[in-house]
Here is the input.
Amino acid sequence: MKQIALLYPYSVPWIGDFILGVVDYARKHGDWDILTIPPVLNGTGEIAMSLSNLQGWPGDGVITAIANAAQIKIVESLRIPCVNLSGAMHTPRIPTVLLDNYAAGRLAAEHLLKCGFRRLAYHGIKKLKYSELRRQGFVDCAREAGVAVEVFDRSAARASMSWPQCNSDMVPWLKTLKTPIGIMALHDYRARAVITECQRLGMAVPHDVAVIGVDNDVTVCEYSRPTLSSVNRNGFRQGYEAARVLDRLMAGEVVGENPVLIPPNCVVARKSTETIAVENSHVANVVRYMHEHLGDLFGIKHVLRLVPVSRRRLEEQFQRFMQCTPYEYLSSIRVEKAKQLLLEPRPKKIKEIAKICGFSNPLQFRIVFKRHTGQSPRQFASLRGE
Here is the structure.
């Protein structure tokens, strides 16, 4: 039986999914005894586990989050295989498995563009590699759609700062933004702060400012007012792939220096982006109807009754304002809804998901889903959105 240490420096919900992914791989492919302790154990009489605690530990492998050069030295001194799960810094000598942060930025931009926004902004933190990558993906996707992005990167907060101080430097920037606008923050905690400061300034969320974060931390997203839309990072698959890489290292295989990137699997849309920011009234009416009647059986012929224009004219307007046809837009929002349902802890049956998402039957659902994702619904759900 192999002894594996799983060290994580923060207690956030996606870490729970990450651990489940590691455990799932271990059950299927290896006989592992996994040692893991939460990073904060105040009041228990115990100490939290860290890399320095592993000196002299007779283990076989480590999965951890490396944040600085000192930790790299500790890992190298342990002389056992190690996999890094953090994107805080480049670790060429230590294999890394992490979220594809560039793709997360693109996915957030795509979501806001589907809401009709032609003004976008990004709020990040300086000198964080993953913030830079998320910003770049967001900016590139927006630029491809002909949309410019306002960027505000602040310095990392210090422990001595109060909560108002942590957010005060954002306010002058927010005041300069023209509305309506869609804002991506590098993670849910910054996104929640953006919502708070927008509301203090009298900017309505989501109608003046729509906000989206990353991580889908339900302890933040579901208790924000309005609830917060977020890019789901797919912690389960990250854990599964990290375990796979560690297993290869322990078998003596050579693993390349390039990080293994795990694509985010969907945007979990909530109230903070529930708005239609389309300047064309015909397109706005059709898009609003599609969202409000997503589970109904209807096609493009039906929505043409809502507007006094021909199908060709409506398609031209959609291409101009949404960069797609009405059919493509309707299919994409139905597939995104299906993704969310497939990723639930206890997902519904395929037949039921098809009905909820407005597909006439499970076969049509499978065909459209595979056209958009390259996978069948069951394949998508097998690793929670591989």
